[in-house]
Amino acid sequence: MNNIRICLIGAGRAGEVHGDVYKDYIKNSEITAIVDNNIEKAKSLAKKYNLKRSFAFHNLKNAIDNIKFDAVVVTTPTFTHPDYVIEAAKNKIHVFCEKPMATTTRDCDRMIKACSDAGVTLQIGFMRRFDPGFIYAKNLIDKGTIGKPIIIKSLTHGPGLPGNWALDIKNSNGMLAEVNSHDFDTIRWLSGAEYERVYAVAQNFNCAAIAKKFPDFYDTATVSLTLKNGTLGLIDSVCPCFYGYDARAEVVGSQGIMFIGSLQDSTTITCTRENSIVIKQTMSWRKRFHEAYVAEDRHFIECILGSKEPLVSGIDGKKAVEVVIAANDSILKGKPVNIDR
Amino acid sequence: MNNIRICLIGAGRAGEVHGDVYKDYIKNSEITAIVDNNIEKAKSLAKKYNLKRSFAFHNLKNAIDNIKFDAVVVTTPTFTHPDYVIEAAKNKIHVFCEKPMATTTRDCDRMIKACSDAGVTLQIGFMRRFDPGFIYAKNLIDKGTIGKPIIIKSLTHGPGLPGNWALDIKNSNGMLAEVNSHDFDTIRWLSGAEYERVYAVAQNFNCAAIAKKFPDFYDTATVSLTLKNGTLGLIDSVCPCFYGYDARAEVVGSQGIMFIGSLQDSTTITCTRENSIVIKQTMSWRKRFHEAYVAEDRHFIECILGSKEPLVSGIDGKKAVEVVIAANDSILKGKPVNIDR
Amino acid sequence: MNNIRICLIGAGRAGEVHGDVYKDYIKNSEITAIVDNNIEKAKSLAKKYNLKRSFAFHNLKNAIDNIKFDAVVVTTPTFTHPDYVIEAAKNKIHVFCEKPMATTTRDCDRMIKACSDAGVTLQIGFMRRFDPGFIYAKNLIDKGTIGKPIIIKSLTHGPGLPGNWALDIKNSNGMLAEVNSHDFDTIRWLSGAEYERVYAVAQNFNCAAIAKKFPDFYDTATVSLTLKNGTLGLIDSVCPCFYGYDARAEVVGSQGIMFIGSLQDSTTITCTRENSIVIKQTMSWRKRFHEAYVAEDRHFIECILGSKEPLVSGIDGKKAVEVVIAANDSILKGKPVNIDR
Amino acid sequence: MNNIRICLIGAGRAGEVHGDVYKDYIKNSEITAIVDNNIEKAKSLAKKYNLKRSFAFHNLKNAIDNIKFDAVVVTTPTFTHPDYVIEAAKNKIHVFCEKPMATTTRDCDRMIKACSDAGVTLQIGFMRRFDPGFIYAKNLIDKGTIGKPIIIKSLTHGPGLPGNWALDIKNSNGMLAEVNSHDFDTIRWLSGAEYERVYAVAQNFNCAAIAKKFPDFYDTATVSLTLKNGTLGLIDSVCPCFYGYDARAEVVGSQGIMFIGSLQDSTTITCTRENSIVIKQTMSWRKRFHEAYVAEDRHFIECILGSKEPLVSGIDGKKAVEVVIAANDSILKGKPVNIDR
Q1: B touches which chains (3+ CB pairs under 8 A)?
Q2: ipTM beyond 0.85?
Q3: pLDDT at position C18, please?
Q4: A257 touches chain B (CB under 8 A)
């Protein structure tokens, strides 16, 4: 069995997270190329991964023309996803695309079609679906342990803002897209239902400087959701959040309640007179979801090798984009918005 | 120092909670009369409390005419509060009134004026303000431990429905009033700000039978709130909730996060192969807030003795009524509602 | 029903703990006298309790000669317990005696006999038996939830040293008596068995100054116990302990495990970047066991009024003294010691 | 860089744990041979790992004669460790040896010398030293967060008995060796001191049938330890333990306390009326220490590649053997035993 050869598109933080996983944990894979329009970043990451033939490229076309690989892992800014994904698909290259999938549902449709037409795998990066705690929770819900979900609450508070390109909501769909796509996906996944209606409120508490350039920028938001099966959803969003990286969910069922995730980084607890009982909190999504990233990337390789449909599909990516757009619309209009169809 | 003599108005569950506290824990007080329009319930409770002269009355007027007391504790259905409170005030009797204070803000205003005119104490039963965990949290917030509150989430899931009179929303303002008044008060108290806008969604998952008679009845709701200082609020409500009595809050601040309350009834934990790690949950508000009820009732006596203004005033009661009415309005209209003034 | 009139013997910290409880929480009781050989302390506490006739006495005889009371609460240094208890009993006065009951089992026997002969109540102050968490745990054990107890671990780490009189082990039986009597009682109570054998090791880590005067003084100890039914016990002792007041137990059963108690003072949790997740720890036994003290003192009054045998008897007090003496013997000899009989 | 070729000696549970890790997680390694005196087990595991040339061997000599490899991973019964390790060393093959290292300190010395003479790596399998929670705890201790350790408590309760060969204490040193070697190593590691004295008590509660054949067999034990720097230690041991796999430590320092490890298998929590609050417990050491096994095996490869001394040396292995032997001696003699030297 030959290794699956991977081209990383995007040499930033998220690219490195996946690169490190492929390098250290996924045996039947190898990283063979890095693409980034910042060629220096691409070269730097290539060096870290000891590429046998050091191929760092400025764009995907060059990479395809010069070196063979089986799959791309796309971690560039959201608005660049469609072009990369479609170009890869046309060249019969399998695609792992980070969330948010795109900034419009039309782009999502084009990406899905391109991959489908080419017969290549398309997996979207909702890694929480590979987290042991979330999987265990989903199994318990499906077994009926807490009855039918009636309220699902999910939150992500992220410690650091994404790149400058994301500060303009028109460019990025804002923090609800960049940070809370996961929550929208989690509620949909755990409920097993589609979104019907959304009401969102946003504030900018800590980023007055950004607001000067981008008046619609928000760093704090709450979202109230209704799903087609009647389940209610609540999301709260804070980014930048100063206390750590926080990703949790709480599911109220007709017969019980469930808590998913923890802010604790460690089970080690100390107590001293001065500091009281202290537990280290999670500071980074990279560490919080390390095990999920390994499982997600392993799954991608297994889907390619086994010609299997990924657990997180283009449709899942699109549905999160759709509801995020409606939520931003609600913020701007100050009233609830129905999800189309 | 003579004991403060108390007349319990309402011989139901809430009346007994306060009665038990006065009987067993509040030394400079004594229960001297019970009023309930169900005279048998009044007599039964009178017996339990070994009233020296067994005075159980059908209405407040009879009690006032026949026996002397210094204060009333009103725990009857909400819509009866204004008449009892105003009658007590006119007779220079101090008033402790359970939440919700009334069903309209106009009634609240009348109650406040009556007590003010008579110069008697008026305290409203938001006992969470006397819970050690909530007080400690409020102190930490005020000290700035987590910075300025930016999102405050509060929930109450109650195990059992209130009396039949409460099932008609027109009569009671529904579960948001009966169960979640505490959450509306908590968010206002912790934020130190007034409400500006509310959006609420409700469902009826488990009570189809009630809906036949009262189509507007809901057993599940979510509430999205904006306060005048920008703080955002979220409430979720479930009643009846089958898993226990759940009252918790989570405050996201500009510099940190805070969790208030716990579902745990005990710190005793067991683990067996069959049942895994098990901790007994709280099943009753009486037990969950026992210490708060003692402190609340002790405070009422101290206010009377010291001519002090209670920590929870009629204004606090009215503000909760006001936002609950707006939330119900939002549910019916399907859109956000501004709080007047 | 007349109030039970109480004479506090001992106006120190423990005396004030019981005094405050009787004053504020136990309705059918009143404090009528204070005895302390430091008359100023007695007077000061008498003032705090607004004694109707301000009776503070230098010794018990004077109090008995001058004022009537039904019960004494003995909280003076351990070595003074026998004389006070026996004098009270001879005067037909009921006795609540703090732990440790005495410094020798012979004294315990004399105290038990005096109370028995006089027909008065004798209750020993193992308040953990009145703590809701410990009671709940005991009930679960007796129901067989975790099978038969095979290892019981109990610890007390106390923040502050007792009075100077206690630093001489010959006078006090040391910290195992003053601080860990509770643990010895807890293991015996939870196992339902008597002690057979004990091995103890002690160190002095933080109190070099005390060791100069009292070379046998220890501030840290571990105790290994065998009970007659085969159950094994472990105790660890630290006093002074700088991080708080810590009292917990862990019971391994043949079918499961149980954790009793918590170091947490509050369910309120904060998290900030600088301090991580923080929970306030318990700093004082007075607060940790407040509810237990109320229940313990209420029980004492009920036993007097109902002529009932207290849940914690003189035998319980004696058994703890017996095993503590054996443990100290083991420390000095460096080998295990059998418990007599 | 060529892969490090590994020969697994022992095709049982522990062998498979390491094999799975090498197969799935350690990129610069490959499994090239399996040795087990049960050749069918060796063949079965060889098949699972898709060995390129399917080499399963009955003994190590055959393997060495027929195939090249760089390292062995020894997971066979303890008494077989010395011969395997010494034979590997003589053939210049690196050695990873599971705990307990051997059954006598003389054997440990021979193993250490053989590896030293041959200049090969010798690493002992105390994987807790690679667990993130334990490492974090060790770092905090070394930084002085809780002051100097004064009491260290460590426990292992294992769900299942080891193989029949281990039931005879003379053959295996009993459960203190098989199950609690980790605790002896943990206390020594965290304290940074050597053992001075040990007192142990043991019982057989659940395994009467085994006791018929091996009267010295125990399934429950407590151990009291004194270290040369004065630190006190306590271990409790239960195996078989019916409620799960439990491995935790508690370190009392001169300035604070620290808790290491958790019985929780998941951060997902449910609550229902019938079952109360439920958290899944850890059932297996394989899952509990999965991350530690990956880090441990990665470290072994890095030591070989970098000619580095492993973090867990033969001396560490020997010190645990030495104190376990003294503890068993204490159980049999009923008195404390000094550790030689």
Answers
A1: A, C, D
A2: yes
A3: 98
A4: yes
